[in-house]
Write a structure and sequence with these properties.
By secondary structure, the protein is of the alpha/beta class. It has 15 helices and 19 strands. The chain has two domains: 108 residues, Roll (Urease, subunit C, domain 1); 292 residues, Alpha-Beta Barrel (TIM Barrel). Helices cover 39% and strands 22% of the residues. The strands form three sheets. Strands 1, 2, 3, 4, 5, 16, 17, 18 and 19 form a nine-stranded mixed β-sheet that branches. A six-stranded parallel β-sheet has the order 9-11-12-13-14-15. A hairpin with a 5-residue loop joins β1 and β2. α5 packs across α7. The chain binds zinc ion (ZN).
């Protein structure tokens, strides 16, 4: 496809006018100020007048199958919400439930400009199948939990699912868009022995590790009581987790010492502002992270703690919150926020050829319609994207060179079928829980 005469965001976060961008197979093959040659007679020329092109988003902390739990268990703290509502509901989810609810979540992700997600859940084979069919990229993990200090991991579901999915990926069951991470749910759902095994095996297999870290004050305090004064970040370091590339979600209560540890290790800190606000967890010190040069990404978290998977909204909330919390109107720039949601996310996922509009990179392209009330006047396009835009302004999402969404239509998802399946399955589970 050739995007002609289009406004675009380049790899240095500069807005360029009247540009031409060509894609070939999975990649961006040309960026310039003149029309490139067509590679075939059928190649589409997309009229870019009144449109804005940029890289798609990398949503680096999500639990996409939880979309079926949207609106379930409202008004509870993280711990009460998890143990009294979420865990009993999740015990009822079948493989097919996971497949359909993942498709529902994928629709929302794609429509809000996501190219890729880092996701933590269970029945990850079924999740991978659904995401792959929708055309998305994903780094998927099962966040291992282990409540018995003597548990043999050979009997641990999360552990076994991780290696099984890795085998499936290696055997070519899914497209190359699907990758596997090692998941360590959190310090408070594990113990020292298991964390050490996870760290060692992830390192041997060359897997990135995805975990929750310092999400609540309670987690931070109780971790220190459990582990001789160690914070969750120190617990991870002690177990050897930081020796692999890590993505840590939330990080609301990391101390300045923790930040030094995470910086030294090259870990990625995932900012989940909506979920942190909705569950009353607190506000992460993002301005400090950016000033210290930590690698910050953005994630929506799941639809039952957010309650949406709208990456455009997450970007907006992240930008507003950081400024309000620090009383500094210049705390993070629009470019800082976009960097977190694109190139930093791609690097966190180990996808070095993604995250920016650059020749040779994967063609993960989203297009905004600028000719809408909330995008006019178009004086500062990047500020408009971060502070004014809504997902509804996104008219195209192309992932790895394939258009997966255009003008409200999904190329590989039947909307009505997904709504019907998810609602019927929700009804069944609510009935089962009442019995
Ligand atoms: Zn989470």
């Amino acid at each position: 496809m050739i995007f002609s005469n289009i406004k675009m965001l380049d790899e240095n976060f500069k807005v360029l006018e009247n540009m031409f961008v060509q894609t070939k197979d999975e990649k961006i093959s040309y960026i310039g100020t003149t029309m490139p040659e067509k590679t075939s007679a059928e190649e589409e020329i997309y009229d870019g007048k009144g449109k804005f092109l940029m890289n798609g988003f990398f949503n680096t902390h999500c639990h996409v199958p939880m979309t079926i739990l949207r609106g379930y268990g409202e008004g509870l703290s993280l711990q009460d919400w998890l143990f009294t509502k979420i865990f009993p509901f999740e015990a009822k989810l079948t493989a097919e439930d996971i497949y359909w609810t993942t498709k529902l979540g994928a629709m929302e992700l794609i429509a809000s400009g996501c190219a890729s997600i880092s996701d933590m859940y269970f029945r990850i084979e079924d999740e991978a199948k659904a995401l792959d069919e929708c055309g998305m990229k994903a780094n998927i993990c099962n966040g291992v939990t282990s409540f018995d200090p003597n548990e043999d991991l050979a009997n641990n579901r999360g552990w076994n699912e991780t290696w099984a999915l890795l085998d499936s990926v290696k055997n070519g069951k899914f497209s190359s868009r699907i990758k596997v991470d090692m998941g360590l749910h959190a310090e408070y759902t594990n113990n020292d022995r298991v964390a050490k095994i996870i760290a060692e095996e992830a390192k041997k297999a060359g897997l990135n590790i995805h975990a929750h870290l310092s999400e609540t004050e309670k987690e931070q305090t109780e971790c220190k009581e459990r582990h001789e004064g160690k914070t969750p970040a120190e617990f991870m370091e002690n177990a050897g987790v930081l020796e692999s590339q890590c993505q840590f979600a939330h990080c609301v209560y990391v101390t300045e010492e923790d930040e030094e540890l995470l910086k030294k290790a090259g870990s990625f800190l995932i900012h989940n502002p909506s979920s942190n606000l909705k569950l009353g967890s607190g506000i992460a010190p993002v301005k400090r992270w950016v000033e210290k040069g930590l690698k910050v990404c953005i994630g929506t978290d799941g639809a039952s703690s957010n309650n949406n998977l709208d990456m455009m909204e997450e970007i907006h909330v992240a930008a507003l919150l950081c400024r309000g919390a620090t009383k500094d109107a210049n705390a993070v720039s629009a470019a800082d926020i976009v960097k977190m949601a694109t190139v930093n996310g791609a690097l966190a996922q180990g996808r070095k050829d993604c995250g920016a509009i650059k020749v040779g990179n994967k063609a993960d392209i989203i297009v905004f319609d600028l000719m809408t009330p909330n995008m006019q006047p178009d004086f500062d396009t990047l500020a408009n994207v971060v502070f004014s835009a809504q997902s509804s302004n996104i008219v195209m999402n192309m992932i790895d060179g394939r258009v997966v969404y255009r003008d409200g239509n999904f190329a590989f998802i039947n909307k009505e079928e997904v709504y019907k399946e998810v609602n019927e399955r929700l009804g069944r589970i609510i009935k089962e829980l009442a019995n």
